[in-house]
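User: Quick sanity check before I run a bigger batch. Here is a single chain. Can you write out its predicted 3D structure?
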Amino acid sequence: MRDLVLQKKKTRILDAEEFRQASGLLDPETDPSKPQVTDEQKLLNISINFDPYSPTAEEDYEELKTAVEQVDILGILGREISKTAIDPAVAKQAVQAVRMLDLPQRFAALRMLLDAENILILAPIFVTLMRLVRDLYPDLSPAEQGFIDNALVELSSGRSPMLSVEVNLAHYVQALAGNASQAKEEILILLFRSTGNSIIRRLIILVMTRWRCHYWLSDVKSQYGAMPILEKRAYILASYCLGDEGKHWRTHTRFSWTQPELLIRDWYAARLDGSKGVPV
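Assistant: Done. Predicted structure follows.
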């Protein structure tokens, strides 16, 4: 195989001191109870995975929360951000651990992580950060949600290089899906026009449905025939927020649907009865 090159975004050259530090963090002989063990080493010895459907979910959560409380998560994040290049393993584990913090600390962490300069440093774990924003957003106060919205909008208006990667962009759209605003609608409308990625366009249809953007969904209806299958199936869900217009459209379009489309229609109609909202 010829002409192979290193991917700059995935390749990291360490000097001797950085290598010794990284090796120490991953030392399997580390005993977290010893006083010389660093917070980073303690953090990497915690399994952040949590199964909310486990029979012992409450006990597991409290045990995990107690373990995280023994570590200075904000301090770790601050140290990682101050580096010229973060340690992806440590930074990712710290970002995931933010979920276990108290509400004020969660927002303090988000303020730090969403700083325009810090986001560039956190590029290797941008997806993890956007997942965190998406998950924590509903529990924030209106003022805190407003801060998050402004930070996310700035990523687009500032043409952040983070959004040039499609997988990043998909998770960014999900992070935007909290509260509707004119600025966020404009971002999604422009993105829908400019991207050919069907997964991202599907997500945009679902977010605009969640926000009940009738005017846009009504306009997009004319594009249904040319949509790829993922977008078509998302639009079936979207049609339910168009009232009589959507009902009329489904009546005249259902003859072209395959069995999966009919199942999606029936599933979402039943979901609406339970007021479960639009999945994104």
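The CA atoms of residues 225 and 266 lie 21 Å apart.

User: Great, the batch can go ahead then.
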